[in-house]
Write a structure and sequence with these properties.
Helices cover 35% and strands 27% of the residues. It contains 11 helices and 12 strands. Strands 3, 4, 5, 6, 7 and 8 form a 6-stranded antiparallel β-sheet that branches. Strands 10-11-9-12 form a 4-stranded antiparallel β-sheet. Strands 1-2 form a two-stranded antiparallel sheet. Helix 1 packs across helix 3 and helix 10 packs across helix 11.
Length: 347
């Protein structure tokens, strides 16, 4: 049997109405709230009760806006009318859309978890926002995924916060589109003991900036390739004991030097590029990049970057730029280009 909701639920229902139906562009009068309360919540009330509960919500600290208007009543006396009620949102529609788009274009979040997160974000707005994004279709499940990703993030977050080591299995994707653990020379699954320092997102992927405990250099691992992670009781290796982190982690500098998150030392690279590539260069290498000898058509560029990453970047943009220094990197790219040309040569 259907039960009529108790009057004490009215204030909760009115708050829910403001959450679901109102924003700065969709304001509600007390009459609007009264009608929604009756139609959707099977609760009858008068305008005085609506106003009283709205004022109570204000007293409780809810961020609710409204307008005041003065009019004369039937007796000719002036009275103040409160109308145009709406709940101020923690996120604007544009901010929510940006977050949803970020999820849609992520390459590491499993398909089902991505859908759940998008629904949670949509619930932070109202019915008007949901109609705006109803045409958004989640990307098809065409990327291999690691369902342990969120657990990995939780464990790493705890480890970094408490300066503890972690152990995990690191994997590669095979042609069967499944993760396969890396193994040692004996064929046993290799266990990685890691000193974690920072998680970062770049190029649509999550990475861990850390140190493989057996060595002294900085390492970068993809979070979606990590499985079977465990939090250890042992303390992490101090950053000043890691080559490249002696003065701590300068995150903007590290990200600019590791554009593809390869492990290894950074070198100073000089290259000549077409001037129209300036925006792309800043996007990849950051604002610390140095431009000089600008002829209007070409410009010389000086960056500090991981050498292997620079070789990949040069091949990607090779039609529009030329590496000048160091000589070893230039020779490496020259040989790679020759191999590529041979593959596409005449048969």
């Amino acid at each position: 049997m259907y039960t009529i909701p108790p009057k004490k639920m009215m204030i909760i229902n009115i708050l829910d109405i403001l959450k679901r139906h109102s924003d700065e562009d969709h304001r509600l009068s007390q009459k609007d709230i009264l009608e929604i309360l009756e139609n959707e919540y099977s609760m009858k009330a008068d305008r005085k009760a609506i106003k009283r509960n709205l004022m109570n919500l204000l007293d409780f600290g809810y961020n609710i806006e409204y307008s005041e208007a003065v009019r004369k009543n039937k007796g000719g006396e002036e009275e103040t009318i409160y109308t145009d009620w709406y709940l101020v949102r923690d996120f604007t529609d544009a901010e929510l859309r940006l977050l949803i788009d970020s999820l849609l274009f992520s390459k590491h979040i499993p398909y089902n978890q991505c859908k759940e997160l998008i629904e949670k974000l949509k619930s932070l707005s109202n019915t008007h926002f949901k109609t705006k994004v109803k045409h958004i279709c989640n990307l098809p499940e065409n990327m291999p995924s690691n369902k342990q990703l969120f657990l990995t993030i939780e464990v790493l977050d705890e480890a970094i916060s408490n300066s503890k080591q972690v152990a995990f299995t690191y994997n590669d994707f095979g042609t069967d589109k499944k993760l396969h653990p890396r193994r040692d020379d004996t064929g046993e699954v290799r266990e990685y003991i890691i000193n974690p320092y920072q998680m970062v997102a770049t190029n649509g992927r999550y990475y861990l900036i850390c140190n493989f405990d057996k060595y002294d250099e900085v390492s970068n691992y993809r979070l979606d390739w990590i499985t079977d992670i465990k939090l250890l009781d042992s303390a992490i290796k101090p950053m000043n004991k890691v080559i490249g982190l002696e003065s701590g982690l300068n995150l903007p500098k590290h990200m600019a030097e590791h554009i593809y998150m390869f492990t290894g030392e950074s070198v100073q690279v000089k290259f000549r590029a077409q001037s129209y590539l300036a925006g792309q260069i800043i996007d990849w290498f950051g604002r610390d990049v140095q431009f000089f000898n600008d002829t209007g058509e070409t410009v010389d560029v000086l960056v500090r970057v991981n050498e292997q990453a620079m070789a990949f970047w040069a091949l990607q943009y090779g039609e529009h730029m030329e590496v000048l220094e160091p000589a070893g990197l230039r020779e490496q790219i020259k040989n790679a280009v020759a191999e590529i040309a041979a593959k596409y040569g005449e048969e």
